[in-house]
Design brief:
By secondary structure, this protein is α/β, with parallel strands linked by helices. The protein folds into three domains: 32 residues; 336 residues, Alkaline Phosphatase, subunit A (3-Layer(aba) Sandwich), CATH 3.40.720.10; 45 residues, no CATH class. A hairpin with a 6-residue loop joins strand 2 and strand 3. Helix 9 packs parallel to helix 10. The longest helix is centred in the last third of the chain and has 21 residues. It starts with 7 loop residues before the first helix and ends in a 13-residue tail after the last strand.
Amino acid sequence: MKQSEITRREYLATGAALACGLAMPHSAAATPSPLIKGKAEHVISVWLGGGMGQIDTFDPKRKGDPVKKIPGSYYNSIDTAVPGVQLCEHLHQLAPLMDRVTAVRTVNHGVIDEHAAATNRMHTGRPISGTVTYPSLGSLITHERGPASDAAPPYVLIGYPNITRGPGFLGAKDGYLYLTDTTQGPAGLSRPEHITLDRQNRREQLLSQLHKGSPAPQAQRIQDYETAIAQSLRLSGPDFNQAFELDKEPAALRMRYGGEFGQRCLLSRRLIQQGVRFIEVSHNLNFLNGAGWDVHNEGILNQHELIKEMDTAISALIEDLEEKKLLDKTLIMISSEFGRPPSFDSGGGRGHQGSAFSCVLAGGGLAHKGAYGETDELSKKITKDPVSVPDLFATVLASVGIDYTKNLYDGDRPVPMTDGGQPINALFS
């Protein structure tokens, strides 16, 4: 093929591949690692906005003293179902379930003081760019897998909308529906009371006739808009909206999940059953301790209330999914923008730490270890098996059978799916 016949996309992709090959040792370039593919079908991502302190939850160490400013854990530690793996005492309902869970204790990035930048990093897997708006993990999975059922959207956010959760250069078709009230569906999907079913059907027939008489739109933005309209019409009926009728669940099960956050987790299970591929559930209820997970100063005094609420809801979710034979098909991920240091600030709380913190994976058909990776005696430095954010993304993508090595395209620009991340092999053995 002549040079003039090569498209710009092919030229850039070939150049990127050659550059990678030249940068690697010859043996590595010649023998790439075999692609890992798991068998999970869904992801429930639990977001702990503010920064969950790993030393006070999933990576406890010796106990410290905030008054005397002695670094260490705020709480006592307890044993779990996995020998040698301990948790904070307020995670006592999760402790016997840790054989279905892996606390990845060595996640790390270079963002320390900026919540927005760290939140972007943990949702897109990359630093903020001035030239590319990267897609979120939820949008990557949506783009590659789509919904598990035509009766459901692929991506639902239970929490407030934010650009870091969005589709970036992939476009609106890979975006999310969001809701903040677990008792009703996303805004705009419920038909107003004065619009009867017959009237709705007449409107749809008129819209269909207009489409037939018009040429197909060429602009991608208009195509995405029309795709969103078609999806909204499809989901506005009772089939999808019945997922939000939590009162149909047994009262004992609803009580088992706990308060507002627990009801969000229960709803996520119902949405999985409906066919949603990726769900993010936000847990940053500031009214429990006045600060959410961002426990500077006095915010740490009632941090245990947040931990206990998470313990109740996540343990219920694991057991509920397992009872319904959905746990191996559903990966649960608990993540936060960064962790907290072992030292105490002037008010007895904790600052930010991005150099070593914990994210948690459960279910999804993985070979769980209770914990993966090791930190030093104060959970400040990584001593074994570091996991970068791209590695974490590659692990999640691999778990749902997505090729984490491929390129996506922002126009003609090739963009690696995970910025070179590699899955945690031990979880697939």
